[in-house]
Design goal:
alpha/beta; five-stranded parallel beta sheet; 15 strands; 31% strand; elongated
């Protein structure tokens, strides 16, 4: 995944430092550099931006004011010589706050954090996943998955029309299945919450299948379906 980024910075030396750091990271693509937030705002009207490196103390429009003006802001890493804006920044859901002068190591930490968050968001926007079967990569809609069952070395992804066998582990599958829609209930079972017909005596009914709930996963499962505090 490539992150398209812009820099908003009115100090030439600070601008050059950020540019030099960005150029060292292969998955960053610098598409714009601006010494005023107003120019950046105009650019963003017609360009998709994944990440902004944002200074705060600037003429005409401060970084904070700029961020408040954005309806759907991208990821933002604030870069400033002032500590007192950190709380405001995090209240505006920034990814990180770099206090000048900062090292390349600290810069890279902020980028990695932002990259992982953006990648996770993009995965959650999908409504399908691809799984490795014996001969091909098969696309499966999240809405079609009833449950996943462990069968020795294989995982059986059960849909209303067929079984799909894969060697991918539960852990690998859970990385791509939305946590608000799927839940592990047993070492050998992962279920679609939307497909559950009822829960009775530590068993889940999905279609013709009754799936056990183990003690290991019981509390987290009940919390997921809203029964953690009920008798």
């Amino acid at each position: 995944m490539i992150m398209d980024c812009i820099i908003i910075e009115d100090e030439p030396l600070a601008m050059e430092r950020i540019k030099s750091y960005v150029q060292k990271i292969a998955y960053l693509n610098l598409i714009g550099e601006f010494n005023t937030a107003l120019n950046a705002l105009a650019f963003m009207k017609s360009n998709q931006v994944d990440l902004i490196f944002l200074d705060i103390e600037m003429d005409d429009l401060t970084g904070i004011e700029f961020l408040k003006a954005l309806e759907n802001p991208p990821k933002v890493i604030m870069t400033t010589a002032y500590e007192n804006y950190a709380l405001q920044g995090y209240e505006l859901d920034i990814s990180d706050y770099l206090l000048k002068p900062y090292s390349f190591e600290r810069f890279l930490q902020a980028i990695e954090k932002t990259y992982n968050s953006l990648q996770s968001n993009r995965l959650n926007d999908k409504d399908y996943l691809f799984v490795k079967t014996e001969y091909r990569m098969e696309k499966i809609s999240f809405a079609d998955i009833l449950f996943v069952e462990g069968m020795g070395d294989y995982r059986n992804i059960q849909t209303p029309s067929k079984k799909i066998l894969t060697l991918q582990t539960f852990g690998e599958l859970e990385k791509y299945l939305p946590k608000d829609r799927f839940c592990r209930v047993h070492k050998s079972y992962l279920v679609s919450i939307a497909q559950i017909e009822f829960v009775e005596r530590n068993r889940i009914k999905i279609g013709n299948k009754r799936i056990p709930i183990s003690e290991t996963y019981k509390d987290s499962f009940l919390e997921r379906i809203g029964f953690s505090n009920r008798k």
